[in-house]
ATPase AAA-3 domain-containing protein
Amino acid sequence: MVQNGTAAQTKIKQLVDNISRVIIGKQQAVEQSIIALICGGHLLIEDVPGVGKTMLARSVARSTGCTFGRIQFTPDLLPSDITGVTIFNQQSGEFEYRPGPIMAQMVLADELNRTTPKTQSALFEAMEEHQVTIDAVTHPLPRPNMVLATLNPIEYEGTFPLPEGQLDRFMLR
């Protein structure tokens, strides 16, 4: 049992070291992202634009072999832009599900507080239930699944505050 723990610690240290080669000066954010991924949780980072949050999410995905999806939250973003849509395929004569970016294993939810509460709720529902339901068909999210969400400081123009109940969906902040 101790040997397995030591091997796991070694792998985690290698992972943190690998990501830290790209993300310099953000050791706590790197460690929190790995902890959240291992524990099946989600991470929320509040910081000003341009400090490497997107690069952190991409680096974690690459280093762990996870698929990567990015959602750029804007005031006109729709819930279906996150979850995906069902469209009619004229060749087959059937409806097909086209997955949205939430169907990746590592999802960057960038500038989450720039979109409306209705659209935010589509993300939070997927995070909580580990699935999305489109036209009465349930699609499970891949495992592992982690959302790394970013917020702009509330002083920035065009932001929507997140209620405490939604902030509780994140394992680490």
